[in-house]
Predict the 3D structure of the following.
Amino acid sequence: MKLLIDSFWRSAMYCLYPRVIVLSVLPLALIVALSWLLGYLYWDTAVTFVRAWLDASSWLALVWGWLEGVGLANLKTVVAPLLVIFSFTPLVVVASLLAVSFLMTPALTRLVAERRFNGLQRKQGGSLLKSVWWTFFSLLLALGALVLTLPMWLVPPLALLLPAFIWGWLTYRVMAFDVLAEFASTEERETLMARHRMSFLAMGVITGLMGAAPSLVWASGALFAAAFVILVPVAIWIYTLVFAFSSLWFAHFALAALHALRDEPRAAAVDDVLDAAPSEHNPASPHTSARLGPDDQAKSDSVTDVEPRATT
């Protein structure tokens, strides 16, 4: 828990570094450009399709009639854009996570290593190909979990907890692998991910909950169409900063855990030496006492290879 909290506050402070802020511009520009391109090509088509689906739905006819009866007939025009936006949000989250993972995480990990663990050996336990495969496989599992749990989203508490848990699991899988890929060997990475699985998952879930904040911005963009073009980049930038913070959090935690893991054999060797040394609680071997005798044993404990200086 101490390591978890310490790495959290260190990551929060690192987010204020100009270098981190500058690094966040590239994923932001990339995702904003991609979102603008998709919106320019498919926005009208998507909204028209969803609106037609809502009009053709027989079980929603009663809802639209009730809304018109209470004077909220115009609300129907807002529902279709909202559904398109919330359907598009998981794609933006995944794209932001992948952009930060490949464009920021290696640089942020090196930043943490330079400032805190300058002598940490880089064992290159994960290649770019392994990272891409690991991310792709984890993404498929996360999307499968989203699809399977969609009916549970109708329950209000689960609608908030399930996405955070799934995105948190995905964040933990991707970030932990990418942070350790350069510095840890394959065996060290597997050991750390098994030993600190619950801490990594907690970090992912917390950052997943933090990532729920931009959803409010998405909703505001739909309700205030005039500010939509401005609010969407703000939401994407928030996603980018959240994932950048998670990269720093995982980097501080994982590198500190890796440093401690490599110190374990050294600490064990020191403990073995201390345990083997004669002391009040660890007396000399009876064979040594029998060979030297009690008096000689006392003398042998005081033997030194420094000759006393002759006095004049």
Notes: The chain has 13 helices and no strands. The radius of gyration is 30 Å.
